[in-house]
Amino acid sequence: MTVPPGREASEYHRHLYEEECYYILSGQGELVIDERACPVGTGDFLGFPANGRAHTLKTSGDAPLVFLAARHMLEQDVCDYPRQNMRMYMNGAEEAFVSLSDAIDLNAK
Length: 109
Description:
single chain; four-stranded antiparallel beta sheet
């Protein structure tokens, strides 16, 4: 992926079932995880476990941020967007959005 200066790679989010990872090839960026920012750059590896913390990656320099991104691409997943107060249920090409306050608590015991 290539992210132009001043842009985010994705909406601030977290996957409940899917894992993601990024490997920074070039550029400077800022990883925001749980609303805390830390610098990242060439050679950094970032891993995000399933049901982990919300995150996004954005450029912080004048050059594009270039990185490899990998994830499972599960047929079914649930993705939370805390800043939007939304949850997305995914089933293949189908997507359904609900507010987080109306969402089913998948971690309830």
